[in-house]
Amino acid sequence: MMKFQKKILKKYKARILFVLLFLLLIISCGKQTFLFEFSTEKVDRDIVDEIKKLKGLPPPGLLYSDTKYEVWKTCSGEWGGTIYFKNKKSGKIYYAEATCPVSVNKINNKYYISNSLSHLLGSSDIIEITDPEKMEQTTRISLYHPDIITREYESHSSKGTKKLIDTVGAVIMSSFVYKQNLYSILLNHSSTKATISELRDNKFHTIKEIDKDLFSEHPLIIKESETHQKIYLQRPKAGILEIKENKIKFISYTKSKK
Fold it and tell me: Rounded to two decimals, what is the model's pTM?
């Protein structure tokens, strides 16, 4: 009788454990789904007028600035691109190849450079830089302008950098930080949706799908802080995609000039 009771108890314990694990899985998936709060708003204004009102815009090519460095970029499309770190105190400049930088983020004193190129199927990668001064040194930052192809000035050195992910068929609009994790807004060549994806274990993990029309290859990105940025879009949809911590808001500008 005792052996039979133990057998029944063991059987029920296994079932209870299975149910608990199943519930934990559901809760975990639910938390991931609602990690970001997404909202929309419509305004009867023209996005071009809104952009014209902006003051104190950084010069072309300046992506990021903290207490120690200015971080600049150049991009020559399929011929390559470069990321530059200029030490504010010494004036020394360090650079490495990066085709083509769209975003710089800092987590635990490490810099993460998100690069993206829409040529052909599109490609993107993210590199990690622990100490910019271990990169190659140069004497100047090349002039950056979207219509100027510098080519011969682009760096071909990967010294001091570590490539975390390299993909073909997906492009990055921008990357941002939330709770010390790096997220990117991605568009896959074969997908009808854009995604917010987390860089984890050197792979992109989709967290949330968003409207494909909220993705632009040439947005104006204003970075307010490490966890707050505004992305000005003129097409496909005119508006501002604002990301602040885990709150994402799209303000749709419905008025346009004729």
Answer: 0.84
Q: How many domains does the chain have?
A: 1
pLDDT-flagged residues of the chain (< 50): 4, 25-32
Supply φ then ψ for residue 152, to 5 degrees. -65, -15
Please answer whether residues 98 and 114 qualify as being in contact, where contact means their C-beta atoms are separated by less than 8 angstroms: no
Pick from 99, 74, 58: nearest CA to 221: 58
Is the C-alpha dihedral spanning 204, 208, 209, 211 positive or negative? negative
H or E segment and range at residue 233: strand 228-233
- Residue 74's closest CA among 170, 147, 164? 147
DSSP letter (8 states) at residue 141: P
Q: Which of 46, 204, 57, 68 is nearest to 125 (CA)?
A: 204
Structural domain harbouring 154: 35-255
